[in-house]
Amino acid sequence: MHAVPSGVLTGVHYLDGDFACGEGAMAAGCRFVAGYPITPSTEVVERIARRFPMMGGVFIQMEDELASMAAIVGASWTGTKSMTVTSGPGFSLMMENIGLAAMMETPCVVVNVQRAGPSTGLPTMVGQGDMMQARWGSHGDYAIIALCPQSPQEAFDLTVDAFNLSEQYRVPVLIMMDECVGHMTEKVVIPTADRIEVVPRTLTAKSPAEYWPYQTNGGMVPEFARAGDGYRFHTTGLTHDERGYPAMSVECQERCVRRLVEKIRSNADRIVRFEEEETDGADVVVVAYGITARVARAGMELARKRGVKVGFFRLVVAWPFPERRIRELAGGVKAFVVPEINCGQMVLEVERSAAGKAAAISLPHAGGGVHEPERIAEALVEAVK
């Protein structure tokens, strides 16, 4: 455990998910935020902009989302925990620099409060259509971590976790919230300092003469040094060697990119998190995340009244995907039903992980609203037939 930064509003509050996310960032030690206003995420930075002056933080409204993502990458290299906040169209604009952050192994957090798309879509209404973009949106091979809160309380808790994961693995971490969770208001308990674990930025103990910025000493994650502390190093989006210098070779590409991917894949069991209920003996399992997980519970109760043995599996961490557990469950159920506020995205991961042992049934919703519980119940009844 480490001391929580000063200024955190511990206690019981009545907050929407956006405000709770902002408070989580501050509790995690974030002190630089750059962003551009976009519905339905703007309240996150509105909260931060009001609170940062009391905490020694800096918020900058940038000219666009490209600059916002670039700014937090640069800020992170000063040793400052940094974050940006956006929604669908802005998320698309950030993708190139998210890939840059992955290649440079820059710890930072990106919050996407999802709305219905594509393009401008329904700016004020809910969607979950950016889930595959979160994993595959930038070009080339890299790995990412993405978390999906289902409540304002989790918007706080998982934002703290996102910063901790970004520090542990030196990777951009995504918070894939949705408009409903962002705008719903519920009780949020912000724990006292001794109940919040904050992972600080760990700096190398090596001298400038000994330090190479991408040397891992047999591990998977390189040690960090701040720009301005006397360390002479180079960091780039080009394929680079352990010194950070561009190295245009097949051999270096293999070492560099393979490690970017494997530092997440090899630790997937430590990163993956899910909520599982009543899967033993179930004929069908609902797989859901975000607001849809809450709606799904109502549909499950209706299906149980009709005699369906239904289990529940909620993605808390969406990427890396919990493929091992889905594959285990597939050996004992007839089907998975996957309600999503998109036309079928994470269901493809369920299908892949089930490997033909159980059906993966998509229950899509194009966005702008949530599923009717009755529709989920009907899908569950049909699945067991």
What keywords describe this structure?
five-stranded mixed sheet; globular; alpha/beta; 385 residues; Rossmann fold; 2 domains; eight-stranded mixed sheet; 15 strands
Description:
It is a single chain. Helix content is 37%, strand content 21%. With 385 residues, it is α/β, with parallel strands linked by helices. The strands form three sheets. Strands 2, 3, 4, 5, 6, 7, 8 and 13 form an eight-stranded mixed sheet that branches. Strands 10-12-11-14-15 form a five-stranded mixed sheet, sandwiched between helices. Strand 5 (108-116) and strand 6 (122-126) form a beta hairpin. Helix 1 packs across helix 2 (42-51) and helix 11 (323-330) crosses helix 12 (346-354). The mean pLDDT is 96.
Task: Write a short abstract of this structure.
This protein is α/β, with parallel strands linked by helices.
Any idea what the shape is?
globular
Topology pattern, helix = H, strand = E:
EHEHEHEHEEHEHEHEHHEEHEEHEHEH
Strand content: 15-25%
Query: Helical residue percent?
Result: 25-40%
Number of domains: 2
Total DSSP E strands: 15
- Structural class call reads alpha/beta
- CATH class placement of the largest domain: Alpha Beta
The radius of gyration over CA amounts to 21 Å
CATH superfamily of the largest domain: Thiamin diphosphate (ThDP)-binding fold, Pyr/PP domains
Low-confidence stretches: none
pLDDT averaged residue by residue? 96
Q: Can you tell me the CATH architecture of the largest domain?
A: 3-Layer(aba) Sandwich
**Biggest pleated sheet:** 8 strands, mixed
Distance between the termini: 50 Å
Specify the number of helices: 13
